[in-house]
Structures are given as structure tokens and as C-alpha cells.
């Protein structure tokens, strides 16, 4: 009875508009945290290839824990995408005629180009994720030896890829898209899980904007530095 009741509650949560917004909010914040950690990890290559490879080796050495984290992240991503698209489709059905102009509506909706393009930027990021994994996680496996330990030379692969203009500027463009997605997404996530009120909403909106800009810049620094031979 308890399992059946819990299952019914979960299905009810998924089927309700509020429940779906809560799901996208929680998964969105989780993915934003991962993006921040991933960006910080990337920046270690600016320090040295040795530090970058050692970090990558440490992550790989987590073994089953790494698989568990990847499984959770995959689940978050799938739920976020599927539910987000569902919300967007329902919104289009409710208002089939688009607005003639796109501009910020201010409080409380925070409608903007960023908010209206969430589905589009999300699809772009999904396609990028698949390409990114194919290029790096499952890309050429170079090896190196650091302090007597053989490990993957991931820095060589990253530097090799970002010396190509298509990768360097394509990656840069997608990171701008990520920033646009995060600009509205962070604020919307806090709103969806009911943690905003009229007093703190402007502050969270401003923080979301700053966070989005810093994330985009943090990711863009690496490919451009490599392409223009600022690091090697």
C-alpha cells in the first residue's frame, strides 16, 4: 500500500504543472552545480597539464562512485530536458499565437529573450553534450606517466581539439548559449521550488545573471587560450 501510494504521489507530481516546475527547478540547480564544478576543473589546465591530468586521473579512480555520479547526472539531465520540453509544449498549446515583440516583462514573470529561448538553448546544449562526450570522454586515449603513474593524457587531447577553429569557436559559441540558458534558468529554478519572495527575487535574479556570465567566461577562457597559443 505504501509503495503504491508513493508511486501515485510521484506520478501526480510529474503530471501537475507545479510538480513539473519543481522537477525542472531541482534538476536545474543540480546541473548548475555540476557545471560550476566542471568549469573549475577545466581551469586547472591553465595552471599546468600535469595538474589537469592528475585531476582527471583522480576522478577516473573513483570507480563505482564515479559511475553512480554519472548515472545521477544523466538522470537529472534527462528529467530536466523531458519535463522542460513538456512545459514548453503545454505553454505553446495554451498560447498558440506568439507575441509580436520579445522584451522583458519585469516582475514577477521576468520574461526576456533568455526565458523565451529556454527550449531552444536546451536543445542546443543537449546536442553539444553528445558531441562533447564523443570528443573528450570517449575521444582518443593518449597516455602519459606522471610521478611514476601511468594515466590518460587528457590535456593533450584537449589542446589538440581546441587548436582547430571549429572546436575552439564552436565551443565558445555554445558556452554563450549556456550563459543565456543559465541567466533565466537559475532564477526560475529558485522560483519553481518556492524559495523566492518579492524581497529577494531581484537579488536572486541579479546573482543568476552574474553566475551565468562568470560560467560562460570561465568556459570560454580555455579554448581561446589554447587556440591563440597562450597555453600549450
From TrEMBL:
Domain of life of the source: Bacteria
UniProt-listed NCBIfam families: sdhC_b558_fam
Transmembrane parts of this sequence: 21-41, 61-85, 119-142, 162-182, 203-228
Record keyword Transmembrane present: yes
InterPro entries, A to Z: Cytochrome_b-558, SQR/QFR_C/D
Database matches in CDD domains: SQR_TypeB_2_TM (cd03498)
Record-given protein name: Succinate dehydrogenase cytochrome b subunit
UniProt keyword terms in alphabetical order: Membrane, Transmembrane, Transmembrane helix
One cellular component (GO) term of this entry: membrane
Amino acid at each position: 500500500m505504501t509503495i503504491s501510494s508513493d508511486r501515485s504521489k510521484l506520478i501526480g507530481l510529474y503530471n501537475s504543472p507545479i510538480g513539473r516546475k519543481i522537477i525542472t527547478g531541482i534538476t536545474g540547480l543540480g546541473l548548475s552545480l555540476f557545471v560550476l564544478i566542471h568549469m573549475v576543473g577545466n581551469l586547472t589546465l591553465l595552471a599546468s597539464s600535469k595538474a589537469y591530468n592528475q585531476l582527471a586521473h583522480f576522478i577516473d579512480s573513483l570507480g563505482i562512485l564515479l559511475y553512480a555520479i554519472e548515472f545521477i547526472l544523466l538522470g537529472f539531465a534527462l528529467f530536466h530536458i523531458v519535463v522542460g520540453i513538456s512545459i514548453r509544449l503545454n505553454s505553446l498549446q495554451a498560447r498558440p499565437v506568439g507575441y509580436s515583440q520579445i522584451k522583458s516583462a519585469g516582475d514577477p514573470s521576468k520574461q526576456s529573450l533568455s526565458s523565451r529561448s529556454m527550449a531552444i538553448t536546451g536543445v542546443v546544449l543537449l546536442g553539444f553534450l553528445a558531441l562533447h562526450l564523443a570528443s573528450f570522454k570517449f575521444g582518443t586515449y593518449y597516455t602519459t606517466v606522471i610521478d611514476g603513474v601511468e594515466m590518460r593524457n587528457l590535456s593533450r587531447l584537449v589542446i589538440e581539439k581546441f587548436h582547430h577553429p571549429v572546436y575552439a569557436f564552436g565551443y565558445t559559441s555554445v558556452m554563450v548559449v549556456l550563459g543565456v540558458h543559465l541567466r533565466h534558468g537559475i532564477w526560475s529554478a529558485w522560483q519553481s521550488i518556492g524559495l523566492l519572495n518579492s524581497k529577494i527575487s531581484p537579488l536572486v535574479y541579479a546573482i543568476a545573471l552574474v553566475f551565468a556570465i562568470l560560467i560562460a567566461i570561465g568556459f570560454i577562457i580555455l579554448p581561446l587560450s589554447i587556440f591563440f597559443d597562450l597555453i600549450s
